[in-house]
Design brief:
With 182 residues, this protein is α+β, with helices and mostly antiparallel strands. Helix content is 33%, strand content 25%. Strand 4 and strand 5 form a beta hairpin. Helix 1 crosses helix 2. 34% of the residues are buried.
Length: 182
């Protein structure tokens, strides 16, 4: 039987998605802000998208984690490593439920995911694909130490989105952490 990692931060648990995460996931991807991830999505589309992550865990050995608030046990989003076919690089991506935004959860979970991507998965670079007018995600990328690498063409079905590629190398991440920049 395959075992999957569980990461913990001060306030969060990052683990493989479970069926009980779906209702909050469906709310998250139905929200108007889901336009930044190719949505909003109706329930049936949300279900198919939800199943991508457990499938990626089984087939690739990594995918975005479900992010759980320790104090309440509430699903607050999905964050972590992601590298679908045709993607412009090895990504740590994020999407938070609307009621979980503004609490620092995204940066907290991204730091744990970046460490996991570099230390466990052995990635040499992590990128973030961010829709050009998604200012909150750009702010997260900057807090993580990423720099704008330029515009990027996404694979279908997201080829019409204006997307910027942000990122950094393993070396840049390690130097930033040594300086205590987080």
């Amino acid at each position: 039987m395959q075992t999957f990692p569980v990461l913990e931060t001060e306030r969060l648990i990052l683990r493989v998605p479970r069926i009980e995460d779906f209702e909050r996931y469906a709310e998250m991807v139905a929200h108007p802000s889901a336009r930044f991830i190719g949505g909003p999505h109706v329930r049936g589309d949300a279900w198919r998208r939800f199943l991508q992550m457990p499938g990626a865990w089984l087939l690739q050995g990594f995918a975005m984690f479900s992010v759980i608030e320790k104090s309440s046990g509430l699903y607050v989003g999905q964050i972590g490593p992601w590298y679908p076919d045709g993607w412009p690089g090895t990504e740590v991506g994020w999407t938070l439920h609307p009621d979980a935004r503004g609490k620092g959860y995204c940066t907290e979970a991204c730091v744990a995911s970046m460490d996991y991507a570099f230390d466990t998965l052995g990635w040499e670079q992590v990128v973030h694909t961010i829709v050009a007018d998604n200012m909150p995600s750009k702010a997260v990328a900057m807090r993580l130490g990423a720099r704008l690498l330029g515009p990027v063409k996404m694979p279908p079905p997201n080829e019409a989105l204006e997307v910027e590629l942000w990122g950094q190398s393993r070396e840049q991440w390690c130097l930033r952490n040594q300086r205590g920049a987080m």
